[in-house]
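Lab channel / #folding
Pinned by the channel admin:
"Please post every new chain as: sequence first, then the structure tokens as a reply. Keep commentary short and put observations after the output so the thread stays searchable."

First post following the new format, from NK:
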Amino acid sequence: MLPWYQDPVNFIAAWLRTVLSGWGLAPGAVDFILTFLGAGITALLGMLWVIFLIWYERKLIGRIQDRFGPNRVGPWGIFQPFADMLKIFVKEYITPAGADRVPYNLAPILSVASVLLIWAVIPFTMTIMGVNLNVGLLLIIASGGLSVLAVLLAGWGSNNKFAMLGGFRAVAQLISYEVPMVVSLLIPVILSGSLGVNDIVKAQNIPFLVTAPVAALIFFISSVAESGRSPFDLVEAESELVAGFNTEYSGLKFGMFYVAEFLHAFTISLLFSTLFLGGWRGPFAEQYPLLGFLYLGIKTFVVYFVVILFRGSLPRFRIDQMMDLNWKLLTPMALVSLIITALVAQPLVSLPWVQAAALFAANAAILIIFMGWAGRKVSRKRPIVGRPRPLAVPHPDDHMPVEP
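Reply from TO:
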């Protein structure tokens, strides 16, 4: 075990274990109490972290769009999220007549829980993580499925046709984009030889962003689409569906969907940094785990800035464009990338730098081929169905006066 000044979190956990054991508690009860405390602290910190994320994202989007952003409540508007929280807490709860109360009330809880479950397996440092599962990646994929279920329950249980349409769009969008995302996640598994998230981080002597840039790009785009952020925010298309699946929610129930959206956006940045940018790895990160936490935070905020940049600058896709991007480009590209990675990586496993160069060249070729194909498809004009008949244009002589 490292000294307290190198790894204070595990030092405190070991001290608590000693204290609880000294009180005569059984080892199983001590493990349960420590696990419960760790889960509660992680969930609490995640929920409180949303307060900063809301202010940060509003301020940054304001600058991107040449606006001030929050600038009234507190210096630089830093207390604006607290004012919003107070407003949400005092709003009236309204349950529509005819709503199915069980799915209607369960949906907001599932939307937040699905994001917090992902944090349970993310290694924040070499030694600090909720649980080091050897199938942690499967838990991340399963937790993402809960967010889809929350949207469907909200749309179905609200007894509102606009909310139901938002649920239908969730089926088309969120579930569809899980296909290329899951396929792209198989590539880090192949390169690391493990489904454990911390094992994937430790295997990145060369970040997987270098050896598998196509998988990283597909995972990033699919994650943004699954979180329902711009330009993929058709699940909550305000211009068409009022507010989408959460139309009938008010007060803290609506606030939970709001919290889940911001936390999900940050969580996909955290996942991208962990799976493709080396996570906590960096100089002296193994000797001083808190340095690893700093490295992970810097990488996450770089990715999070790109996510916010997407939201602040890109217009919304049409539904047909969004589905074409998934099924005609991302999914085939993910399958081809998976096959090429499996064929190239295994023979060169004993030569890591040669393997990295070969994989980068193969990914560059895949990207060039698919982007060229997609460019030709986009530049092609859409066919005209039922060509209109030309209008009859009168001849100028038809209006000339007739000589007597």
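NK: The first helix runs from residue 8 to 22.
TO: also worth noting, The radius of gyration is 26 Å.
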